[in-house]
Write a structure and sequence with these properties.
By secondary structure, the protein is mainly α. Helix content is about 70%, strand content about 0%. The chain has one domain.
């Protein structure tokens, strides 16, 4: 159990690094939690008007999701998967920010790249297609979260498929406010054009 406990701690601490908040503060843009949805993730960083910072946030949030299972893989499959799940929870509920973090989509993608790359590929392509078509980041993330576990059931083992399903459920739950706004027609759209 000690490797699993240690892996959970490593994964959670990595996942809880609030790159979106750190980057926007370093750039002099203030507290990203005080604008838009109040999230620390890529989409809300995009609302500061800086596509460069949003892109960097995306890369770093994906990287921390990948780092957790990569670092702990040497301890075995169970610690690796435990660290992977903990990284997503760390992003969603960082202790440093009163357990109010991001939605977990980018960090979960980082995890999938390492533990189930075919699922990561399908989820990323599906997110991109939905985002380009409908211009709602939240909707794109929700569609990817619904499809990923179903696809995982065909291409990865049971333990990895369970992790994918657990991450997807957590992502859907974290999007509860977005779901209400989507239904009400008040959800903010994203733009891929120039500032």
């Amino acid at each position: 159990m000690m490797p699993v406990i240690g892996a959970i701690a490593i994964g959670y601490l990595l996942g809880s690094i609030p790159f979106g908040l750190l980057l926007t503060r370093a750039a002099g843009l203030g507290d990203v939690r005080k604008i838009g949805s109040g999230s620390i993730g890529t989409t809300n960083v995009l609302r500061t008007g800086s596509k460069a910072l949003a892109a960097l946030t995306l890369v770093l949030d994906i990287a921390k999701g990948s780092a957790a299972p990569l670092i702990t893989a040497k301890w075995g499959a169970d610690p690796m998967l435990a660290a992977a799940g903990a990284a997503v929870l760390g992003h969603m509920f960082p202790v440093w920010l009163g357990f109010r973090g991001g939605k977990g989509v980018a960090t979960a993608l980082g995890v999938l790249i390492v533990v189930a790359w075919p699922v990561a590929l399908v989820a990323a392509l599906l997110w991109l297609a939905m985002a380009l078509l409908f211009r709602y980041s939240s909707f794109a993330g929700l569609v990817a979260a619904v499809v990923a576990p179903a696809y995982a059931g065909f291409v990865v083992d049971g333990e990895r498929a369970f992790l994918v399903a657990a991450m997807a459920l957590a992502i859907i739950v974290r999007h509860h406010q977005n779901i209400r706004r989507l239904i009400a027609g008040t959800e903010s759209r994203i733009s891929f054009g120039k500032n």
